[in-house]
Amino acid sequence: MTAAGNSVIRQGDWTLSADVTGSPPILEAECTTCDDSSGAAEEAKQPEVWCLRHANQTGHTGFRMIITSFFRASMASVGSSETAARGRRRTAMPDA
Ligand SMILES: [Zn+2]
Known about the structure:
Number of strands: 5
Radius of gyration: 21 Å
Strand order of the largest sheet: 1-2-5
Order of helices and strands: EEEHEEH
Bound molecules: zinc ion
Structural class: alpha+beta
């Protein structure tokens, strides 16, 4: 019953939500000139500081920030999605 209000997308019996049980989003900056990388971090500050340091050391000024977010698919509760689930996907759920 966690993350119920955190629904991102829903299809058939399945709901996709941000996964709050594991790692938070991971951020990593890469130089667009030489592909050197800041390494993974859980906060933006470290890769941002790395960009400035890298620019200072190399003169490279273009960077991309790569953010890896985690999601988890879960079965929607039976009562609320019974009608929406029908037709598209067949799961082992008898109609009773
Ligand atoms: Zn570079």
